[in-house]
Amino acid sequence: MAHEAHYIHPDLKISGFTEHFHKSDVLFEEHLIVWFISGETKIVQGGQTHLFGAGDTLFFPRHELVTVINYPKDGLPHRSVVMHLTAKRLEDYYAKNKVEVKPVPKPGFRTFGKHPLLQSCLASLVPYFDLRDPLPEALAAIKVTEAITILRTLAPEIDHLLADFGEPGKINLADFMEHHYMYNLPMTKFGYLTGRSLTTFKRDFKKTFQTTPQKWLTEKRLDLAHYLIREKNRRPSEVYLEAGFENLSHFGYAFKKQFGYAPTE
């Protein structure tokens, strides 16, 4: 993986990847703000692919599935500053800033581009990573509070997301799986996100789809890859990660077994 993470505080780190690329299907337990220092990042969510580079700032909501593919670029490794917005930090913040929490649609990740307010806030952390000692809690609190204030200024509706501390409730299993089958997560996570225990998830899945989760997931991912290759003229080496496969050779084997010919054909 060749991944390095340097923390100056539990909520603040610099993350780096030095490989050709690194792909992960992620489900963050906390809201994250990420500012890219160098490299390139491809985000895949909801059947859409988005590309970001140095200077861009993204916001990732907690409990939101997303595929992240990081690449070095221009001879530089992929590096980013990452800020965690913990529930405790947000609860303290909103205890002082009363907000009526209302239900909001699933937000997905959000880009703020190279907005100077967020960019300057996150970039100002970079010199602190040269410190030999951890960043004092008082200073870390100031920087996180600054970032929250900027988010609320740029997107006032984000209050209803940041101030919602509830856990996922039981939702429609079929709708969720049809929109999230391309993510490689443990079955326990799929269960958690649909408001079910592992045992209940497997039982409801069999009742809904008349098959096992693993078989259904493989077939759905192969159908997506087949569509992208045949209808969108994408190369197998481009689509196997987006479709939910981790290994190109395994993808080729499974594809040929399913359709009777290799994806390159």
From TrEMBL:
UniProt keyword terms in alphabetical order: DNA-binding, Transcription, Transcription regulation
Pfam families membership: ExsA_N, HTH_18
Domain HTH araC/xylS-type: 171-265
SMART domains: HTH_ARAC (SM00342)
InterPro entries: AraC_XylS_family_regulators (IPR050204), ExsA-like_N (IPR054015), Homeodomain-like_sf (IPR009057), HTH-like (IPR037923), HTH_AraC (IPR018060)
Highest taxon, organism lineage: Bacteria
Name under which the protein is recorded: HTH araC/xylS-type domain-containing protein
